[in-house]
Q: What sequence folds into this?
């Protein structure tokens, strides 16, 4: 026997029983996106490596350690996308979307790739959904995009169990002021910081605030707050965001340690978290990135967006709202007589084309085994076809929920089942 080939470490199979949960989530997301007037965009799965080096940053773990990069036959360095904001912005610039509308509201869903340590809800091929609003610098846009994810949580029935954390990193002037203040505070403690944080001290000191090292956490709890370094225009922007969230009854917690280490982030940043995930509690992260479009060669256009891991979001949904057993099949056709099996595909095809979810047995099993299969698939009805029934153009339609059974003409099966919905 040939040796079995196993799946690659850190990736996951989404089996049919799980796919139904994904489809439910995707339906909710697409409906909410449509209500908020966001259009779907589908950028390619791989891009030029340079795109992520310039957008995410060469000194980040994502670019330096986690990307799946390779050279194609022309020698061009390509990378499987580790995130999608950069690809969306690249597409926005290349396709001149600003000429279609001054504000582009876009959403996406798809697989991302990072070679990091696999853990619960986090794989090397993982799926994200996200939204980007490009073109408006105003706090109304910040609030709308936060409300967008909150609406998805409401539709999923978990909004009350998820927390919104929010902060502001201000404009570039405020950010530089805070960078200096933070370095001045940390300098006397430099030798006490972790090796990673010592490296970040010069290159990206704000990322030290996100350190999980216990000693780093102890030091930074007394660090200056970025809110104290915001200039007047940044304070006004942030206060308007908070006021509008309050008016919309979207609860939030101000978190002074919430930061974004990348220089293109400005003003509002936020996360949605849930205790259902344990220590790794973030299910959505976002913020305003007014400098990224220009950084990638476009005009000086403001933008804001968020991304959410689908696997992690589904873990929260399952923890807070365990899936109830429900029917996945409308009808299972049970064929009694061997000579009738050749007629089964033609009969069931008409029901399928009329909209019913149907199945039948192709293994020539006994009637008892066929009924067991109907139960396994959680069919609502069984249509039992014997010689007498076939000669009369009927089936014995059995309702599994009520136990009722009656003869129904082939062309009335769809109507009869639909009346039970």
A:
């Amino acid at each position: 026997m040939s040796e079995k080939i196993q799946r690659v470490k850190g990736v996951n199979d989404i089996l049919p029983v799980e796919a139904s949960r994904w489809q439910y989530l995707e339906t909710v997301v697409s409906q909410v996106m449509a209500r908020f007037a966001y259009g779907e965009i589908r950028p390619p799965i791989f891009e030029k490596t340079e795109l992520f080096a310039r957008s995410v940053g060469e000194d980040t773990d994502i670019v330096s350690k986690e990307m799946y990069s390779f050279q194609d036959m022309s020698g061009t360095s390509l990378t499987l996308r580790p995130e999608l904001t950069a690809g969306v912005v690249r597409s926005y610039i290349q396709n001149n979307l600003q000429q279609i509308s001054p504000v582009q509201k876009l959403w996406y869903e798809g697989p991302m790739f990072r070679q990091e340590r696999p853990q619960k809800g986090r794989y090397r091929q993982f799926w994200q959904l996200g939204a980007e609003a490009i073109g408006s610098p105003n706090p109304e846009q910040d609030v709308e995009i936060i409300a967008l994810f909150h609406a998805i949580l409401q539709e999923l029935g978990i909004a009350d169990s998820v927390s919104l954390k929010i902060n502001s990193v201000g404009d570039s002037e405020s950010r530089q002021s805070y960078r200096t203040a933070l370095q001045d505070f940390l300098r006397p403690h430099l030798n006490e910081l972790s090796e990673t944080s010592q490296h970040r001290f010069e290159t990206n000191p704000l990322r030290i605030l996100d350190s999980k090292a216990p000693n780093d956490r102890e030091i930074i709890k007394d660090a200056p707050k970025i809110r104290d370094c915001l200039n007047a225009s940044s304070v006004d922007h942030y206060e308007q965001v908070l006021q509008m969230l309050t008016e919309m009854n979207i609860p939030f917690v101000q978190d002074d340690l919430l930061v974004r280490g990348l220089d293109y982030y400005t003003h509002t940043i936020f996360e949605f978290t849930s205790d259902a995930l344990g220590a790794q509690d973030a299910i959505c992260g976002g913020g305003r990135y007014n400098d990224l479009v220009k950084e990638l060669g476009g005009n000086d256009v403001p933008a804001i967006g968020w991304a959410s891991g689908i696997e992690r979001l589904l873990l929260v949904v399952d923890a807070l709202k365990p899936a109830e057993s429900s029917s996945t099949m409308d009808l299972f056709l049970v064929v009694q007589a061997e000579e009738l099996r050749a007629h089964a595909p033609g009969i069931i095809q008409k029901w399928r084309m009329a909209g019913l979810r149907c199945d039948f047995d192709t293994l020539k099993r006994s009637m008892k085994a066929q009924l067991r299969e109907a139960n396994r698939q959680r069919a609502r009805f069984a249509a039992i076809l014997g010689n007498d029934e076939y000669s009369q153009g009927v089936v014995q339609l059995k309702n599994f929920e009520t136990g009722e059974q009656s003869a129904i003409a082939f062309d009335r099966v769809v109507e009869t089942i639909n009346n039970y919905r």
